[in-house]
């Protein structure tokens, strides 16, 4: 099979390549090697709707895998027959899906959905695992906040669904647009620099390297975040800034019992300058999401007040209504 595809496409194609075909006037087809095995392949023919697929296939009659192999061969439009040496192992008719739960959380008893239990996407783009890991990161510190007494369940889970639903919606929009592009036969034009559609869907606003409240802090050298608690970032923090800010921050975290870290970053670094702009300090919660950005050398008033307000200001970035 590998040599046959190489004769069709080119002799220098590496063994792990994916082959894509589009016969004039027909739907796109793709063939991939599985796990680098030269004689094991997975193929797919994409149809806009079930009505465009062969009736026997869309009706669920998928037991005749060899029949499906002939459909794939015709869609790939190879210059020579695939021959009798190929064995079709199995086939199925699959419809892309996009599902999202109506409600992700319950306050009492505290419960939350994450990963595939909360949302599903078609495999295009490979977002499923990424979204699940993001859910776990966002949910993990919230559960820790409840178990450690930093926040009440209602406050801890506040914003979780909206935050992660937004991430799912970005990825879903990309999948829908990309599927339409593939079905329309439009050529892919890679973006110049960062901030392409795929990266934006996956990373959100921080894709351009800017820190945004409510979203993950962009990655740049010289920053170690406190993964068990909160981090105060001081940009160009001289001794005066550290002396003015750090004690109040450490004291507020101490009243709550949440682990904390203070990190001084050099604003002369290009990545830091882009990330913070004119802001001199930031607070990040355990999953690296920014809860506060400030241009002045002072913490939010709620941080230095009583423990309940401090916890909400540090971990949530705003006071949660009772």
TrEMBL record:
Gene3D superfamilies: D-Amino Acid Oxidase, subunit A, domain 2 (3.30.9.10), FAD/NAD(P)-binding domain (3.50.50.60). The keyword Protease does not apply. Its cofactor is FAD. Residues 95-167 form the FAD-binding domain. GO terms for molecular function: FAD binding; oxidoreductase activity, acting on paired donors, with incorporation or reduction of molecular oxygen, NAD(P)H as one donor, and incorporation of one atom of oxygen. SUPFAM superfamilies: FAD/NAD(P)-binding domain (SSF51905). Pfam families: FAD_binding_3. Keywords: FAD, Flavoprotein. This is FAD-binding domain-containing protein. It comes from Emiliania huxleyi (strain CCMP1516).
């Amino acid at each position: 099979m590998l040599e046959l595809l190489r004769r069709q496409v080119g002799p220098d194609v590496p063994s792990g390549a994916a082959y894509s075909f589009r016969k004039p006037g027909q739907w796109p087809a793709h063939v991939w090697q599985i796990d680098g095995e030269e004689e094991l392949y997975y193929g797919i023919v994409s149809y806009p709707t079930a009505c465009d697929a062969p009736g026997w296939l869309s009706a669920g009659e998928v037991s005749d895998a060899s029949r499906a192999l002939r459909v794939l061969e015709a869609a790939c439009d190879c210059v020579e027959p695939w021959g009798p040496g190929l064995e079709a192992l199995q086939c199925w008719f699959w419809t892309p899906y996009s599902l999202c739960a109506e409600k992700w959380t319950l306050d009492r008893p505290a419960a939350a959905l994450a990963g595939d239990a909360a949302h599903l996407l078609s495999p295009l783009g490979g977002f499923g695992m990424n979204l699940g890991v993001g859910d776990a990161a966002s949910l993990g510190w919230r559960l820790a906040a409840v178990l450690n007494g930093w926040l009440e369940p209602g406050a801890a889970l506040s914003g979780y669904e909206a935050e992660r639903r937004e991430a799912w919606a970005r990825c879903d929009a990309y999948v829908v647009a990309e599927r339409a592009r593939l079905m329309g036969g439009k050529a892919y034009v890679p973006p110049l620099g960062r901030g392409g559609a795929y990266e934006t869907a996956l990373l959100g606003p921080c894709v351009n390297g800017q820190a945004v409240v409510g979203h993950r802090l962009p990655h740049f050298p010289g920053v170690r975040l406190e993964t068990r608690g909160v981090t105060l970032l001081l940009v160009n923090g001289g001794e005066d800034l550290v002396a003015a800010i750090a004690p109040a921050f450490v004291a507020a975290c101490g009243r709550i019992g949440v682990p904390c870290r203070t990190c001084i970053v050099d604003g002369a670094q290009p990545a830091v300058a882009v990330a913070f702009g004119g802001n001199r300090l930031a607070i990040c919660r355990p999953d690296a999401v920014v809860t506060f950005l400030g241009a002045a050398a002072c913490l939010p008033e709620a941080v230095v007040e009583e423990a309940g307000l401090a916890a909400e200001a540090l971990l949530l970035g705003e006071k949660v209504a009772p």
